[in-house]
User: Which sequence fits this backbone?
């Protein structure tokens, strides 16, 4: 069951665009190596996921209310974009280089960040859980 009504924002307003999440880089190998190292460190990775939920209000609202989206993957891609301006297609490739344990730990960090974002929105009254899934503003 979806917790919140889907919220849309124009892509021009998404913070992730300004951090190259959907862009490109001139040296894919360099960014792949950086993304593997970054995503393999679940504590650092998780700290940037927390930054995303605190700093990217528009992107988070747009992505995290979309239940057809792999929200754990999105928050992970967003964290890498915030940290090193790495495009999500390279982050997807970097994921394939991680061990099962690294993937598990990273997914736990993503789960925590998403739960925190949802709880903060419910507590602040910005989004309302299980009340017709309507926005309160």
Assistant:
């Amino acid at each position: 069951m979806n917790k919140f009504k889907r919220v849309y924002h124009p892509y021009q307003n998404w913070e992730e665009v300004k951090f190259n999440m959907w862009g490109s880089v001139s040296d894919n190998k360099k960014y792949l190596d950086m993304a593997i190292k970054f995503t393999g460190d679940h504590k650092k990775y998780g700290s940037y996921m927390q930054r995303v939920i605190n700093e990217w209000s528009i992107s988070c609202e747009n992505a995290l209310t979309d239940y057809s989206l792999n929200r754990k993957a999105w928050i992970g891609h967003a964290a890498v974009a915030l940290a090193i301006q790495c495009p999500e297609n390279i982050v997807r490739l970097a994921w394939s280089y991680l061990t099962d344990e690294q993937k598990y730990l990273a997914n736990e960090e993503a789960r925590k960040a998403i739960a925190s974002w949802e709880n903060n929105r419910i507590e602040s009254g910005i989004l309302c859980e299980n009340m017709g899934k309507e926005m309160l503003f």
About this structure: The mean pLDDT is 91. Residues 42-129 form one domain. The CA atoms of residues 5 and 132 lie 8 Å apart.
